[in-house]
Write a structure and sequence with these properties.
There is one protein chain. The chain is of the alpha/beta class and 120 residues long. It has one domain (18-118): 2,3-Dihydroxybiphenyl 1,2-Dioxygenase, domain 1 (Roll), CATH 3.10.180. The chain contains two helices and seven strands, in the order E-H-E-E-E-H-E-E-E. It has helices spanning 26-37, 83-92, and strands at 18-23, 49-53, 59-64, 74-79, 97-100, 104-108, 114-118. The protein has a four-stranded mixed beta sheet with strand order 4-7-6-5, with helices on one face. The chain has a three-stranded mixed beta sheet with strand order 1-3-2, covered by helices on one side. Strand 5 (97-100) and strand 6 (104-108) form a beta hairpin. It holds the Pfam family Glyoxalase.
Length: 120
């Protein structure tokens, strides 16, 4: 917590346990995010959603939706210790890069949702 922030009495904690990403093709998105995250897909026959449980305790829920309107803004960020390696990975895997700077790379998932890789 920064020096400017002060703790107030609230029943809500500051953690973000889950992010929900709406996708058209659940199986395709599971494969894509599995490859991106370096994780194995454990459910080979998902129904309407799939959960990636990340090392930091957060979860990415992929939710099957008939219509997906991608946000023009970043949905969530993923840490990377090496932006140059991440950039090479994106280029090798034909992942569309939207923006890059010294600390972040914004890129699109198969549905056009913008995700950010960052080393901050």
């Amino acid at each position: 917590m920064s020096e400017q922030q002060s703790k107030i009495n609230s029943p809500i904690s500051g953690g973000v346990p889950a992010v929900f990403v709406h996708v058209k093709d659940l199986k395709l998105s599971i494969q894509w995010y599995s490859h991106l995250l370096g994780l194995s897909a454990t459910d080979t026959n998902p129904s309407t959603f799939y959960i990636f449980r990340l090392e930091n305790g957060a979860n990415i829920f992929l939710v099957q939706s008939n219509e997906v309107t991608p946000s023009p803004h970043v949905l969530f960020s993923l840490p990377t210790p090496n932006l140059e390696q991440a950039l090479q990975f994106f280029e090798q895997n034909l992942i569309e890069i939207v923006k890059e700077d010294e600390e972040t790379i914004h890129f699109k998932d198969p549905d056009g949702n913008i995700v950010m890789a960052c080393n901050i």
